[in-house]
Amino acid sequence: MRPPYTRWRALLCLLLLSWGAAPLYAAPEGQAAGDTVVITVRDIRRLNLRSVQELLNHIPGVRAGENSVSIRGSRAVRVLLDGMPLNDRSAHGVKLEMVPFRQLEKVIVIKGGGGTFYGDYSGGGVIRFITRRAGRTRTFLELYAGSLELRGLRAGISRQAGAWGLAAGAHYRREQGYRSNNDKEVQRVNLKLSYQPPNRRSGRGPSLSLDYGERRYGSPGYPRHPTPRARAHNQSLGACLRWQGRGLASGTFFTRFRNRRTDPDRGIDSVLTTWTLRQDFTRRLELPWLGKLHAGLGLQNEHGQGTGLEPRDEQTYALFALKHLHRGRLGLRLGLRVNLYSAFGTALNPEARLSWRLGPAQVWAAVSHSNQTPTFRQRYFRHSTLRPNPALGMERSTNYGLGLCWSGPAWLKGEVSLFYNQTQDRITFVRGDDGVGQYRNAGRTCLQGLDASVALRPFPWLEVKPSYTYLEAKDQDTGLWLAGKPRHKLKLEVVLRPRPGSMLGLHYTYVGRVFTRADNREQGPAYHLVALRGEYTWGEGWRLFARVDNLLDQDYLYADGMPAPPRTWQVGLGREF
User: Fold this and answer.
1) For the segment 130-171, what is each residue's pLDDT rounded down to a tens digit?
2) CA torsion sign, 42 to 550 to 412 to 52?
3) What's the pLDDT tens digit per position in 521-546?
4) What is the value of pTM for the model shown?
5) In terms of DSSP bridges, do strands 444-459 and 462-475 run parallel, antiparallel, or are they unpaired?
6) Which residue from 89, 175, 283, 463 could staple onto 274, CB 3.0 to 4.6 Å apart?
7) Handedness of CA 559, 369, 39, 100 (dihedral sign)
8) Beta strands of 288-394 (E only): which ranges?
9) DSSP summary character for residue 24
């Protein structure tokens, strides 16, 4: 391994070279329709969604928990907040609580691709949360409460003063939980400062965002192996500085995650802290023979230390380029990313996408390759249900997609997609008979199937949205079904709007049976879930909202074998002024 000073010298040289090159160009907003879903703030308000989880679970093929996201059965999903990664390298999962939900401008979900511009951990896709810049002065306050001693508060303010804008927000949530030692407390604050030059032709001015989140919770363990006194405390800090002007787009990102686990019954008191500093540049180049193409440079240093892990630094350098070709109704996109890792060697991530527009319909086909490096936690962390595996290696995924999307009259839209994901050395959690597991490279695995959705609006007051995902998930070396991957998932959402300012929504979900262990020795049965939500607005910005989850009080299991919550409810009151 190279000595640290040599790697940092290379990092500095690449940084200096990037500033001396041609003008940069911001990465495109995502992929074309068909393999990408774009949800705007207008859509969020119209659907009366109340959380990041509700929003993501509204999208066909996407499944989101409190700290996890999967797309078409794959949890290798890159999640970004204004370009800042939310994938926690110190604790398994995604820090969704850091997303300021009420300040979102747009959400972009790329299914089964996106690795060319967004890098590692995108074998399943990419989710981008984009927040609004401060505009007119606005303030919102929201209080809610519910079953299991749920209490919550959301507040925020934004103000524009000349070319300067300021936005700030906070969220606090606490609940007792439905199992012994299942309580949780979450708090988050965010601040965003932006400047827009008077001459907009000079580009988009700088913006600085700061986000902090903290989560304390009990870890009850598996039903057969309870951990009644195990506790966890997670802290998240993120900062990003973005600037665009004269064709140059630059993003500097810093994240710090700290995870502590204690279990006095097993003598465990473990701490793991990671921080990541990343610099991204993108530009549009004019090259001989190749013409115009989007290109970029990424530089990253990741640091980890904690119980059982001496301070360790790992670097990643990336070069990427994307070329668009259009001829009539045909469109072609070709991309390539080169990743150089100080700990895992070199990886190439190519992608190609072909689309053909036929009136209101579009047919598309895509192929992409991406990789995922194991986290410090997966390799070195130990707690009551996890033992370390320092030899864990990198996984590589290849995605193939074929789809048709159609948008005819305003009241009818639909799409269907076929997907095939093959992964080498897939990183998976294998649980032992003692309730303690380990992350391992599971050889060759395959995720294949289809997802389809239809959006109907036959009347202004009625919306119907059915969707279905079929998934086959197998370990190709053993023939076993992958744990936590149901074969069938059906969603149906019906929204009634009897009068302006009011809505009533019914959400039905069917999830087929799922194996809860990698050896297929245990499985959870299929289940049906029904949720109701409603909202009523009146006066100057007042809103009353309510929600009931698991209306039928189904007894079911999560994909990892953990018991899921019974019927729960919440009601709240908010005002925007």
Assistant:
1) 988 776 778 999 999 999 999 999 999 988 887 888 889 999
2) positive
3) 888 899 999 999 999 999 888 999 99
4) 0.85
5) antiparallel
6) 89
7) positive
8) 291-306, 309-327, 330-341, 345-358, 361-372
9) P
State how many domains the chain has: 1
Q: Give the HSE-up count for residue 576: Cα atoms under 13 Å, Cβ half-sphere.
A: 12
Task: Assign residue 277 the CATH number of its domain.
Answer: 2.40.170.20
Distance CA 47, CA 55 (A): 9
Residue type (1 letter), 416: V
Yes or no: say if 271 and 307 are a contact pair by the CB < 8 Å rule.
Answer: yes
572 burial (CB, 10 Å; 0-12 / 13-18 / 19+) is buried
Q: In this structure, are residues 124 and 110 in contact, taking their beta carbons and an 8 Å threshold?
A: no
Q: Which of 493, 428, 421 is nearest to 462 (CA)?
A: 493
Q: Which residues of 506-536 are buried (b: 16+ CB within 10 A; e: fewer)?
A: ebebebbebbbbbeeeeebeebebbbebbbe
Whole-number Å distance between alpha carbons of 170 and 150: 17
Distance CA 358, CA 217 (A): 52
Residue 200: the pLDDT is 57
What tokens were used for 44? 């969020």
What percent of the chain stands above pLDDT 70?
A: 92
What is d(CA 366, CA 358) in angstroms, rounded to the nearest whole number?
18
Half-sphere exposure of 131 (CA within 13 A, CB side): 33
Q: Report the candidate in 560, 463, 562 with the shortest Cα–Cα distance to residue 179.
A: 562
Token digits of residue 102: 């009420």
Structural domain containing residue 471: 4-576
